[in-house]
Amino acid sequence: MRPFLALLLANASAAWSQGGPDSISASRLRADLTFLTSDALEGRLSLRRGSEAAGQWVASEFAKAGLVPAAGKSFLQPVPLIEYRADRAASRFAVKRGGTEKTYEFPDVSGGFPDDVSISASIIFAGFGIAAPELNYDDYTGIDTRGKIVLIFDHEPQESDAQSIFNGQGNTRYAGSFVKVLNAQKHGAAAVLMVAEPNRKHPSNQERQARVPGGEQRRRRLPSQALEEAETRIPLLTISEKLALDLISPSGNTPSTLQASIDSALKPASFTIPGTIVDLRLVNASRRRGVETNIIGILEGTDAALKSETVIFSAHHDHDGLQDENLFRGADDNGSGTVGVVELARAFAASPTRPKRTLMFAVFAAEERGLLGSYYYAAHPLRDLKTTRAVINFDMIGRNETPSRQTDGLMQISGDTSNDLNLIGTTYSPEYREAVESQNLKVGLKLDYKWDYDSALNIFFRSDQYPFALRDVPAVWWFTGFHPDYHQTTDSVEKINFEKMAKILRLSYLSGYALADAPRPPRFVANPKASAGTR
After folding, report:
1. Burial group, residue 97, by CB count within 10 angstroms (0-12, 13-18, 19+)
2. Can you give the residue range of the structural domain that contains 265?
3. Are residue 314 and residue 446 in the same domain, yes or no?
């Protein structure tokens, strides 16, 4: 038996013997979710009154359960936001060469920025825009990007190679655009242009998003949001493959040959594109400040030394709101996770037995607008992230995974998923996986890790565990999978499998207790390939 697993099994029985998991109630989950998805909450759109009401409800339930506010006297952590809408007509993207100028418009260029900006700079191709010291890979080697605009590929090198140092055919932390923009910013870049990697064997992000019915209309209808104190302070624009080919052409290369070179040698192919200036202007038609809230409560651990350490149960409460009289109720996404965190708070608070480490219950704001609440918390933690030992993040835990337009041809979905639970992110902490598997012996769910080896749907970056994983915290997304009602008005409460949901929460109770009570916490493994032997 592996040492960490032995430690978990030695002290986990107390959680069940005291009745904590058995107090989790499917009927109470149904009642709570019926309220959260009611007309009165208007789909819980960020910076609208339905989202505020949802947050106040969570805070009230935390107080009734007996949690202690994590933010001084309040359960509410303010999250300052900027809401803005780009003015495409006033914005500009032009390429200047040899005394000539060519302008490009949507859809060749898309994206926005919360501040109006005007940049005129030369352009540098910077590969995949990755600097990964533990993998001995750095696209910024040998180039000076200070004050320049960088052009990068989406995703990672060798994505179709199961032996790649970048987690084989799965994504690593470096594939996400947030990390790539931070990296460009660190190297002094003025802006980032991102294009889908040309030799990909899956849809681009834009093609993937278009598979969700109504997705493009939703993006046009809803204004963008960003953190007022965002870590990323330079614009990111998505460009078409046609525009990328035009930009790179003076070098005598093509995007396809450049990617092939990088994939073959696993070495950077970065360079300044000769004789090319990009003139970029981003203008907003509207811009306003607003404040959302994360709702955070704690139950202090019992051990004098270990109670300074934290295990987090998290979810997000926002959804897509009321749009043109169409109500997006978000029962599964993510009313299910929200009521799950609340129910766990009640169960732990009522139990006479608590673990040694402190438990935190966090319901984040504005996840649908770009993980804004969890990014804010990770940058402004209420308890030290260096002593945050694990995150159990719930996002869509109420349904059975079924084929949909989003997954067609990209992921094989089992015929019967009525007892299935996906865990996403365990490649970064095999010991976290051991903890859940050891407790699942008592619960009997079928655990599935397929999404850790997906590079088509960007799953790893799409929920609130990701900002924690970027800071070396073992953080895993608990997820029952996609279905045709994802981001549709039909994501409603009567389609939730409440008995399965209660079963998942019982497993999370036992797993969280074990992680919070073990003599040592699970370790974070920065290089996923180093954990390959435990799969």
Report:
1. middle
2. 90-285
3. yes
Report the sign of the C-alpha dihedral through residues 236, 139, 528, 357, in that order: negative
Q: Are 211 and 405 in contact (CB under 8 A)?
A: yes
Q: How far apart are CA 363 and CA 474, in angstroms?
A: 18
- Is residue 203 within 8 A of residue 211, CB to CB? The reply is yes
User: Would 150 be classed as within a structural domain?
Assistant: yes
| Whether residues 109 and 208 fall in one domain | yes
Whether residues 391 and 255 share a domain: the answer is no
Note whether 105 and 72 are same-domain residues.
Answer: no
Q: Are 340 and 259 contained in the same domain?
A: no
Query: What does the DSSP assignment read for 227-296?
Result: ETT-S--S-EEEE-HHHHHHHHGGGT--HHHHHHHHHHH-S---EEEEEEEEEEEE-EEEEEEEEEEEEE
**Whether residues 53 and 156 fall in one domain:** no
Sheet holding 191-195, edge to edge: 100-103, 92-97, 271-282, 117-125, 149-153, 191-195, 236-239, 109-110
pLDDT confidence tier of residue 196, bands split at 50, 70 and 90: very high
Residue in the structure block whose two tokens are 């260096």: 386
One-letter amino acid for residue 170 of the chain: G
Instruction: Specify the DSSP class assigned to residue 74.
Output: B
DSSP state of 148: P
| 264 found inside a domain | yes
Say which amino acid occupies 173. Answer: R
pLDDT tens digit sequence for 510-525: 999 999 999 999 999 9
Among the three residues 285, 310, 330, which one is the final residue of a domain in this structure?
285
pLDDT tens for residues 293-346?
999 999 999 999 999 999 999 999 999 999 888 999 999 999 999 999 999 999
Contact 401, 500 (CB under 8 A): no
In terms of Cα–Cα distance, which of 428, 429, 368, 20 is closest to 218? Answer: 368
- Domain assignment present for residue 84? The answer is no
**What is the distance, to the nearest Å, from the Cα of residue 487 to the centroid of all Cα atoms in its chain?**
16
For residue 331, what is the DSSP state? I
**What's the distance, Cα to Cα, between the start and end of the chain in Å?**
15
Instruction: Identify whether the C-beta of residue 214 lies closer than 8 Å to the C-beta of residue 487.
Output: yes
Q: Which residues of 388-414 are buried (b: 16+ CB within 10 A; e: fewer)?
A: bbbbbbbbbbbbbbebbebbeeebebe
Pairing type for strands 236-239 and 191-195 reads parallel
- The single residue listed with the structure tokens 């996609």 is 482
Residue type, 516: A
Q: How many domains does the chain have?
A: 2
What average pLDDT does the structure give for the chain?
94
For helices 498-517 and 337-350, the axis angle rounded to 10 degrees is 50
85 falls within a domain: no
Q: Are residues 455 and 365 in the same domain?
A: yes
* Residue 349 sits in the same domain as residue 425: yes
Per-residue pLDDT tens digits for 57-66: 999 999 999 9
Tokens of 315: 């979810």
CB-CB contact of 243 with 108 (8 Å): yes
